[in-house]
Amino acid sequence: MVGEILDSVEVRHPGVLEGCTARDLAGLVGFRVTAVERRAKYLLIRLGDGDRRSTLVVHLGMTGQLTWKTAAEPTTDVFKRLVSGYRKSVGAHGVDSHTHLVAGSASGGMLLFRDPRRFGRVLLLGDVADESCPRLSRLGPDAWGADPAEMASILVSRCGRRSAKAVLLDQTVLAGIGNIYADESCFAAGIRPDRILSGVSRSRLAVLVRSIDRVLDKGVRNAGTSFRNFVGSDGEAGSNQEDLFVYGRGGLPCRVCHARLRVATVAQRTTVWCPRCQT
DNA sequence: AGTACTACCTGGAGGC
DNA sequence: TGCCTCCAGGTAGTAC
Questions:
Q1: With the C-alpha atoms ordered A262, A239, A60, A94, is the resulting torsion angle positive or negative?
Q2: A80 — pLDDT class (breaks 50, 70, 90)
Q3: What is the pLDDT of residue A141?
Q4: Considering chain A, what is the average pLDDT of its residues?
Q5: Which of A17, A29, A52, A63 holds its CA 20 to 30 A away from the CA of A125?
Q6: What pTM was computed for the model?
Q7: How far in angstroms lies nucleotide C16's C1' from the CA of residue A265?
Q8: Which nucleotide is nearest, taking the CA of residue A231 and each C1'?
Q9: Residue A1 CA to nucleotide C9 C1', Å?
Q10: Going by DSSP bridges, is the β-strand pair A65-69/A110-114 parallel, antiparallel, or unpaired?
Q11: CB–CB of A49/A55 below 8 Å?
C-alpha cells in the first residue's frame, strides 16, 4: 500500500480508536502512505510528506486483522481446511459487522481493520515523535533481531524475582513476545516457565536469548500462528501452528521426549511446558 | 517494584 | 437444536 493516496476513511466502530476521533481519521484523506513499519506488536503506517505528516498506529490485540486489498482483488470469505483441522482463509475477509475501519485509496485499494473481539486499538500520532506516545515509549527493545548481548544484559537487569514467563511477557523488558512465543521460547531454552529467572545461569540465559530469536524467526517465516482467526496482511492464514512444541498441546506427548505436557496458569496466562525437557 | 485482579469483547467448542 | 459454561495470540488500570 506504500504510495497509495487515501481518498476515504470510514470508522464503523469508534470504540477501537484511542486518543483520536473518527473526525481526526477522516482528516487523513489526501495523505499518501509513505511507509509501513513495525515496532514490537504495533504497526506504524506513515502518512503524508513535507509539513503534513501523520502516523496511524495499529495494535491487533487478540483477534485483530489488518488487510490490504488492491482494486483487482475481490474481498472473499472463502476458507480451506488444513490437514491439521484449522481453517485457512484465502484473501481478504469481506466487510462485515466486525470491520471497524475501512480506508479507501485513489487507485481503488482498501485497507481493512477487522477485529471480532475488539481488543485491538487504532491511534493517530499526528506530526509528533513516536516516543511521545506512551504505548510506544514504554516498550523495551524489539525481541526479534535485538543484539544478543544487549538482550542478555536486559534480562539480567530486569528479571527481578519474577518467573521466566512473566519477564518474557513484560513488554517493557523486551517487546513483541506474546503467550505463544513465550512458551515456545522457554521450551526451546529448556527452562520451566515458572522458574525464577534470577536463579538461571548466565550461560542458560544466553541459550534463552538465542531461543527467543529462533522461535520468533520461525514464526515469521511461517507467516504467523493461525489459531482461530489470525491472518496476515494478504488475508492468508499462517502455518506456524503446525510447528509448535508446547503451546496448545497440553496433555499431549512432548514432541522431543514423549513425556505428557503440563498445563498451568503462570503469570495469569495459560502456560504449557514439558516436565522432562524443561528444568 | 512486584503481584493479583478486573475490565474490555465476541465466537467457537464442548457438555447436556 | 438450544442453552449453558469455559476458553482464547493483549493491555491498561487499580488495589495491595
A1: negative
A2: low
A3: 96
A4: 91
A5: A63
A6: 0.94
A7: 21
A8: C9
A9: 25
A10: antiparallel
A11: no
* Helix/strand/coil for A201: coil
What is the C-alpha to C-alpha distance for residues A237 and A121, in angstroms, rounded to an integer? 21
Q: Which of the four pLDDT bands, split at 50, 70 and 90, describes residue A2?
A: very high
Find cell 498451568 and name the residue. A264
d(CA A161, CA A250): 26
Q: For residue A182, what is the enclosing H or E element?
A: helix A179-189
Res A86 pLDDT > 60:
no
Residues in contact with A165: Cβ distance below 8 Å, sequence separation at least 6, in sequence order: A182, A183, A186, A193, A194, A266, A267, A269, A271
Q: A41: which nucleotide lies closest, measuring CA to C1'?
A: C10
C-beta separation of A7 from A28 below 8 A: no
Strand B atom within 7 Å of A232 CB: no
Residues 6+ apart with CB under 8 A from A269: A165, A169, A179, A182
The reply to whether A169 Cβ lies less than 7 angstroms from strand B is: no
Rounded distance, CA A137 to CA A122, Å? 16
CA distance A42 to A39: 5
Q: Average of pLDDT values for A137-141?
A: 96
User: How far apart, in whole angstroms, are the C-alpha atoms of residue A153 and residue A159?
Assistant: 10
Q: What is the model's pLDDT at position A160?
A: 87
Name the band, by pLDDT with cuts 50, 70 and 90, for residue A138.
Answer: very high
